[in-house]
Amino acid sequence: MSGVVGILLCAGGSTRMGFDKLLTPIAGKTAIERSLEALLRGGVERIIFAVSPSSKAFVESLAVPVPSDIVSGGATRAESVKHALEFLRLHQGAEIVAIHDAARCMVPPSAVRESIECARQFGSGVVAAKTADTTMLIGSDGVPVPLERDRLVRMQTPQTFRFDEILRAYEGDLTKATDDCSLYLAAGYVPHFVFVAGEAVNQKLTSADDWQLALATYAHFGTGFDTHRLVEGRKLILGGVEIPFEKGLLGHSDADVLTHAIIDALLGAASLGDIGRHFPDTDPAYKGADSLELLKETARMIRLAGYSIGHIDATVIAQRPKLAPYWQSMRTRLAEALEVERGAVSLKATTTEGMNDEGKGLCISASAVASLY
Ligand code: MG
């Protein structure tokens, strides 16, 4: 018999949002992967995935570090759980079963752990949340009836039970059940609730708002910094714009210091290394390279890694020339290369009041911060 088995429900259709919410990466990882990680970190020792035809191939491709099986989901959530429980009954059984909706991918591992502990002790551990909003029940006559807020509880997942008890509960009428706890209750058991930190983010990805919350939860930030020497006989290019000046920046590529700092910030936010790793200055391919092309390539890598670009904020550190007349064209060119709105690119400049090498006109530096979702 297995000890603690997780049933991960990956069969929910997700046509409501216009894309597959379970299979679309959120900052590099899908909801299925995030939920799986939380279950494993919370102490689950074996996983049964209930999948739909659309999620099956993806789930099969996952490297799961514990024993795992895949069963076909049903037409409803309850049917999917039933399939998984039946499979488990025929294949080794379990002591404790933690049932979790993959769409609740922001569940803290501590919630999983506490739910399992509670089920060990009391037979069940249902992650639940109190409600802060005044809640009313609309009567059959259309008149709302205020409910006693302090006694209201919203069910989340995981919902964890002793295997034999939840198996028995699933012999009941599945047609009206929207969660496991309702069936458990209908079978005559009294569920134990677990109230944990993190209930506010343990939302099911249902609406566009939930999706935004998930993106914000997993925002990543990166910083970048670069310096190039100012010399005679070179063009000065900043943010992809040629700026008339008596000197230009020295470098293997076009030495666009601003764009380089932005590239490093983006790569950093995605943990993809730095500009030197992807576009080495020893590679003749990048001699005289247009840095905006490198920026485009960086944006492509970032998207491939499952991120979307949130915002860029960059500062150019230069004593001269005055850059203000060029800001808008730089922002436009950078935004076009990144395929983002111009409002997502913020540019600033500072002098060093004549101090440091920038202040003495020996070089120009730039720093940047990027956020990715
Ligand atoms: Mg550079």
UniProtKB/TrEMBL annotation:
Enzymatic reactions: 4-CDP-2-C-methyl-D-erythritol 2-phosphate = 2-C-methyl-D-erythritol 2,4-cyclic diphosphate + CMP
Protein's UniProt keywords contain Transferase: yes
Residues of the 2-C-methyl-D-erythritol 2,4-cyclodiphosphate synthase domain: 221-372
Keyword field: Isoprene biosynthesis, Lyase, Metal-binding, Multifunctional enzyme, Nucleotidyltransferase, Transferase
EC class of the enzyme, as a word: lyase
GO molecular function: 2-C-methyl-D-erythritol 2,4-cyclodiphosphate synthase activity; cytidylyltransferase activity; metal ion binding
GO biological process, one term: terpenoid biosynthetic process
Entry protein name: 2-C-methyl-D-erythritol 2,4-cyclodiphosphate synthase
Species the sequence originates in: bioreactor metagenome
Organism phylogeny: unclassified sequences, metagenomes, ecological metagenomes
